Amino acid sequence: MSQRFQRHWVERGCIVAAVLTATLVCVLSYVLDRSRRLELASNGQIDLLKGNLNDRWSVFGALSAAEVRIKPADDGIVEVDILPNTPSWSDESSGVSQTVGLFSPGWYEFVGEFQAKANDSEGIGAQLELHSGRWRFIAKADSHSTGTWQKIDVYLRPSDSYPGAEVSCRFWASNGDRTGRALFRDMRFVKIVGTPPPSAIEFDLQRKERARLGGLGHLHNSSLGSAGAAVLFLATVVGICWSML
Amino acid sequence: MVALSVRLFGDYPWGWRAANALIGTALVPITYLLVRRLFRSRLAASIAAVLLLCEGMFLISSRLAMINIVYITTGAWAYLVLWRFVQDPRPRTRRIELAAMGLLLGLCVSTKAAISEVAVLLALSVVAFTLADPMPTLSIPGLTNFATKRVIGGCGLVLGLVLLVYLTVFLIFDWVVWHGIGGFVAYHRHVIQHNLDFPASFPNASPFWSWPLLLRPYAYWSKNPLNGSVEVLWCGGNPLLWWAIIPAILIAGVRGYTHRSVPWIFVTAGYVANMAMWIPIHRYLFIYSYMPALYFGLLALCGDLEQCWIGNARRWEHLLLLAPLLPCLILGLRLIWAALAIFSISIAYLALSRRLEGWDGKFVCLIFVFATLATFAYFLPLWVDIPLSQTGYMSRMWLNGQGLANWL
Fold this sequence. Notes:
The structure holds two protein chains of two kinds.
Chain A: H1 2-36, E1 45-47, H2 53-56, E2 58-60, E3 68-72, E4 77-82, E5 94-101, E6 108-116, E7 125-132, E8 135-140, E9 150-157, E10 164-172, E11 180-191, E12 201-204, H3 205-213, H4 225-244
Chain B: H1 2-9, H2 13-39, H3 42-53, H4 56-63, H5 68-87, H6 91-111, H7 113-132, H8 140-144, H9 149-169, H10 171-178, H11 181-196, E1 218-225, E2 229-235, H12 239-259, H13 262-276, H14 291-310, H15 315-322, H16 325-332, H17 335-355, H18 359-384, E3 388-389, H19 390-396
Antiparallel strand pairs in B: 1-2, 2-3
């Protein structure tokens, strides 16, 4: 009797533990996913330089968060500084990035202004990159016109398989002890209605992907005869085996 | 199913992942029912449900839109029907059970053909064995009637349905891409050749023998925000469970051999077969391919723990099951706390084994389940992407050497 009572007690305990664990996982999943979901604002745009920049921007490559400072300056400018005493950051491709989901199908305009400390003779520089799947658009900081803003304005329609984009700023230097600096201004994705204007720089990643995968245009040449025969044969085998049991 | 989920919930990450979340959740009650049939014990089934929920590899696979949890769940469901078939004496319902199992195994193979063949072979072996011998035992006379009409019929029904489902699932490809059965065969030859051409090494890849030791888990995705935290989705499991599965399978094998017990032989054979299939494969592999073997390992582990609870386990089995706690305590706690915990557990175990008969096994079972829950809570941030401090993240990366043993 006592043995049965103990077993019953442990069974109940295990079931309670299972239910609690499942609840914990579900609640955490929901709360965490909700906090990370990036929604389009009511005006149909995602501003990359608003909100808590330290939460939204990440480091990649050899940089650690302690080696980078991102802070809003005047006039909506955001300043990214690679701090000194970081001899490791230039050893591999390093920088800061932000990923956004572009889940609403259609065209997006990416606009932004960028300037970076660049000097060819010192071997330092930076470039702004826009990635979406395998595609990338690169704007390299001009070392001859330091201090002037480079405006980027491109249109892209994300592919079906990668409905998102990553904006990154990559820094480099010939010596590890150099610092890096970049300024961003007015950087955002805007969902547009219809197609981009005729003179705009545009990248239709959806069309490219669909062309690569092939469409249904050659359906009329297809034949289901042999596959149908195979299905029929297997169905007969199944029927015979069923009757043997 | 993902397409259906996207249709229902929208073309958003939540919609992509909802189907797998449901399928992964279904694995818990399926496992409960399977273990209840397998070991005829609700206690073992309850323990299995807890262990499965606390295993991070299954959790993360249920949270991502990847195929692994689908073939594991359909495979487990097929095993559940298989054991219903084994324990069902009525010939009429048995036929339906075989058909249902064939359909489920067909879905399993359609999801991941390269691994699921082991599930089919295992199921066919049990079907053949059961039909050849109405009372499933390992007696030699039972084996003499092996090639009977019923065996051929049963195995043919299952195999035929597996192939039929596989062909039907890919019928749209036959139609659009392959242009009939010739294209179907050519595609599969191409896939096999493509896999043979893969190199042996790749970043984050690991040899199959290293999987039970959890030497090379890796991050599916990671992010280092400028706020100094670390966010990661870790393709790794609960180390206590992974390391305990090695002795659990050993114990299951010994039990199967000494007691001539088909359920114990089944879980051992399932584990061994799912590991052995990798021996001839020389392309690079990733640790998530251990999941089918891991599943059998968990079945063995819950059976072993239930035997501990009811007092059927011997001293060496207790010690083997407690042994994986040692590395977890040493790597997870500071040395002084680990030593204290090990000392306390040893004293408690010795005291119980001398003073209270049968309580030593219960202690092993309870301490193991408790430690599993604690380890799960500790590693949970790595599976559900809870931001961690750099220190918190590094303290969870128990192995971070230069070679294969690296969790980073």
